[in-house]
Every structure is written in structure tokens, then in C-alpha cells.
Amino acid sequence: MENIDWRNLPFGYIKTDYNVRCYYRNGQWGELEISSSEQVSMHIAATCLHYGQESFEGMKAFCGKDGKIRVFRCADNARRMQASAACIKMQEPPVELFVEAVKKAILLNRRFVPPYESGASLYIRPLLIGTGAAVGVKPADEYLFMVFVTPVGPYFKTGFKPVNVMITRDSDRAAPLGTGHVKVGGNYAASLPAAEQAQKAGYATSLYLDAKEKKYIDECGPANFFGIKNNTYVTPQSHSILPSITNNSLMTLAKELGIKVEQRPVEATELSTFEETGECGTAAVITPIGKIFDPQTNVTYRYGEEAGPVSTKLYHLLRAIQYGDEPDTHNWVTII
Ligand code: PLP
Ligand code: COI
Question: What is the CB < 6 Å shell around ligand 1?
């Protein structure tokens, strides 16, 4: 692509050539369709517009040194979309349909996959919406599953440099027994006030605490939180946290590097004990955290101006597997 500045891509939307779509109607999924339109036409009473029947996923495809395109843990994202769909009573797209749609969307837009040297990637956004009409609150009888792609740079413009975050104390992203553990649009709507509040105060994003007691760490912006101390990778466990595929990969890699892993409730008071902290996710990859500000106590926890050694090691190893520079011993990568 002649006119894309691959090295300076933001995390945003760039029009690509095609997207793929599949309709669920009359009790079955149809054929995958290719579209060059950025528009979706639907019924004015579609349940996604009124009652939040929507789920999405996020993945990345990478161009290797060898010119091959690799997509990371696609079937795991398919299974997570199934869990999201089941949670809000939507029709689950079969894993094979999801994977085929992702492959097709990448191949049809292969000229938008950023080159190896750029360090950028092709972001893949599958989404599922209730399109059947309903006025009473009930699940739709028709669904539309779509996949679009767009080339992206780092989620935080600093890339692999520490960002500062602020603890949120006056709103919640997800209720204790709500939908925080799945990837549905309503969670992100609920996160907007906290994100705006943090950004207005000069922070990159917000660190959520558990909704019930405001005692435990939940998530960090649209990413999971982790802390490092005493050669241990610590990450919170709770029903309202999205099970991040990146975090799951990092826990596996950490163990292989001889780092202990603890996934358990993490009290906010423990923030003072970490040597390194960070957030992890498809978009965020690993984004180290430099400072965490607690507006209630006025305390700022500091972790340094540069990424710590454990976060750095994990970041480079994960990226090397994703780009095909290190062997894929876990079968995480699908070559397209
Ligand atoms: N937590 C939230 C709320 C997210 O939106 C995401 C992004 O998908 C993550 C965590 C990270 O999940 P993953 O690593 O599977 O992208
Ligand atoms: C991702 O990491 O893929 C996400 O979905 C985060 C996003 C909401 C920007």
C-alpha cells in the first residue's frame, strides 16, 4: 500500500477492501458473504440497537520475516465469542465459521497487512449482533456475524513505554455477577465515564476495582492487569474480569521462563509491593504501567520510567512468537 505510513499507524480505523458477513436466519447460519460496503442495514427494532445484544472480539495478524501471515490464537477467540453469545442469549457462531471468516477477511485484505519491519499489525474485529426485531425484552431470532480488519499501530501511542493510570472509585465497568467475564458491548459503554475521567486528569486509562467492596483490582482499561514481585507474575482473578488470551499466553510463557504465576484476588493495597506492573491484551500487547494514582488516598504508586526486566522479557518473547521469530511450541499461531 503506497500511501500508508506503516511505522506511524495509530490504533484506529482505516478503510480496507472487504469485510465478510454471515446471517443466521430461520434457525441456521447461511453462507459466508463478501462485502465491500462499510455500512450495515438493519431493522429499526433490531435487538442490538435496543437491548445490547452485541459481542465483539479482537485479534491480530502479523507478517513475518518470511512473508507469511500469522494470526494469533484464533480458535480461542472463537470460543470466547461463543461464551459471550451464550451469556447474552445470542446464537453462537460455530468455531469453524468464525475461523474461516477471519482467514477470508485477512486474505481479501492482504495488501493491508503491515510489513514485518514496521512492527505494526492487522487488527481483526469479529462482531455478532442481534438483528431480529423485538420490542419486548427478549433475544432476537436473527443474527449477523461479521469480520472486518484494519491495520493498526500501538493502542497507547507511547508503545512499549510506561503509561500512567488512575484508580476509578466512582463508577463500575461490570457488576459482580454481571457480564464482565464476557466481551459484550455494554461493558465498554459502562467503561466510558471512567476512561474520560482518567484522561481528563491526564492519565492514559483507568484501573477498576471490584464493584462490591472496592477492595480488589479488577481490570485496567480494555486490558488485564498484572504485577511482578519476587520473580512472581501476579494477576487478579474475578468473575467480572475478561479472561484475556494475551494474559493466558503470558502466564504460560512466564512459567516456562521459571517465573512463578499466581492468579488470585489481588487487593489494591498490594500495589505498593510490586516491582513492575502492566496491562495486557491484544490491543495493549504488554503496556507497562509507570504510575498508579489513587484519588481517594492521594497516593501514587511508582514503578519507574522504563519497562521492568520481566515485562520486557515477556513482551519480546510474545511478539517473537506472534511474528514467527520464535518457534510456536503451543500451536498458538495459524499461518494463513
Ligand atoms: N480485558 C478487556 C476488558 C478487554 O477488552 C480485552 C481485550 O480484548 C482484554 C482484557 C484482553 O483480552 P485479550 O488478551 O484476549 O485481547
Ligand atoms: C483488544 O485488545 O482487542 C480489545 O478488544 C480492546 C479494545 C476494546 C480496543
Answer: 58, 219, 222-224, 242, 244-247, 281-282
Output the average pLDDT for the chain.
96
Query: What pLDDT is recorded for position 136?
Result: 97
User: Does ligand 2 have an atom closer than 6 angstroms to the CB of 281?
Assistant: yes
Q: What CATH number should be reported for the domain whose range is 163-322?
A: 3.20.10.10
The secondary structure of 118-168 as a DSSP string is GT-EEEEEEEEEE-SB-SSS---S-EEEEEEEEEE--SSTT-SS-EEEEEE
Q: Do domains 6-152 and 163-322 have the same CATH topology?
A: no
Compute, in angstroms, the gap from residue 135 CA to the centroid of ligand 2: 30
Q: What is the pTM of this model?
A: 0.96
> Is residue 283 lining ligand 2, measured as CB closer than 6 Å?
yes
Residues of the chain with pLDDT > 70: what percent?
99
Q: What is the pLDDT of residues 12-48, one digit of tens each?
A: 999 999 999 999 999 999 999 999 999 999 999 999 9
CATH architecture of 6-152: 2-Layer Sandwich (3.30)
